[in-house]
Amino acid sequence: MPIPLVNSIASWFLKKRFHQMELFLKYPNEVQLELLHVLLDTAKNTELGKKYDFASISNYETFKERVPIRSYEDYEQMIERSRLGENNIFWPTSIKWFAKSSGTTSAKSKFIPVSQESLEDCHFAAGKDLLCMYLNNNENSKLFTGKSLRLGGSKELYKKNGTSYGDLSAIIIDNMPFWADFSSTPSSEVSLMSDWEFKMKAIVNETIQENVTSLAGVPSWMLVLLNEVLEATGKENLFEIWNNLEVYFHGGVSFEPYKDQYSKILPKSSFKYYEIYNASEGFFAIQDRNDSSELLLMLDYGIFYEFIPMDSYGSDEEIVIPLSEVEVGKNYAVIITTNAGLWRYKIGDTVRFTSIHPYKIKVSGRTKHHINVFGEELIIENAEEALRKTTRSTNSEIVEYTVAPIFMKEKEKGAHEWIIEFKKHPSDLEEFQRILDLNIQQVNSDYEAKRYNNTTLNILQIRVARPNLFYDWLKKNNKLGGQHKIPRLSNKRTYIEELLDLNKITSYSS
Description:
21 strands, 17 helices, 36% helix, four-stranded mixed beta sheet, twelve-stranded mixed beta sheet, alpha/beta
């Protein structure tokens, strides 16, 4: 079949889904409540369903009162039993896949259950919807005339019982139908290699001869790969290699710190960027418009949402609300109940609603990744907005960064300590420091109050990282590639002390 015809048929098929979305766009809260009842009914005969008598729960208030909110630690023993082959613990169908995720909170790995239902009705459905939205917004797209360059993780086998674990991206790649390989590059064999550095070279060799029309992956690691592609080919930008490249689908970490670097290697104003919000626990939201910074919350993927206002999070006055009660502009911790058996589960992310007709969000940070040692409530969204403004006004570029508090000592006030790896250094580091501090004050009134006349906080301090410091730190901690992320903000100095020690070493070898 001629490729243009394939493109037309695929576009037509995917656009049909757009009309199905109208149901949750018109009746979002009704769709969510109906979904909750379906989940409860499906799992009523599981061990957890019997414990909390899911069969007798007829409304949200009873569900909220009866079923406790859980963290991973609360689930860990049940998940381990499931990994050892027990069934019907928290979900009725057998679970053969577990998404391995260490995040940035601990060296200890988490194993998130991935049911067949969550694969089909959440992750795969979201992939189709992403394409559907993109094609609806770009009628002249030639996406399917070429291949998508995908950057996933690696797969390993948990040998005790034959269940498998790996990065979520690897699980998805491994479960895709055989024909999906024809529209993707590199091959599954290369995509699932476990040695990250060897895999990078293999991906470069396999993809530079392909007609790549789209990119998909985490911005930090995709940038590493694309720079290697440019180095291997000796080209100035990616369009010299892939002339038909038209869109980058990205998620996993904030795109803000990388935006300027991408624009330099993708210097076409017509090139599109589409953001997604997914995690090991599920696929949550999709950018539904060209050039938008908002994400449409997807309400029919087998995920029931609840939220904790961050001004009450972790306090005695903590409250939990359903989607129908959220407000625009407020910061919330996300709680999910899913078709993989996670019940009222804290995923650790925070979001801010930008619209409630329809429900649209921005990811604002992590519940554990903020700095509030001095009452300043600095979140990742604040830090990255201030950093973006600062790099633009000082004509500089960054690779990675992390921030930690400098604790008060005797009569000395506290401060924030930044360690930044620059791609393009500012001409005056002290000026960069001053502007960054002022920009944080502009986006965070609590920080501004603590900085006023140095009342509580001194001006922030900046440590310049040597080249490849953060890459070496990830390598040392066996976190190269996949969905591993740099810890941006922390109330403790654990990460920054490790980085400062490693910064004294000119190079790292395992």
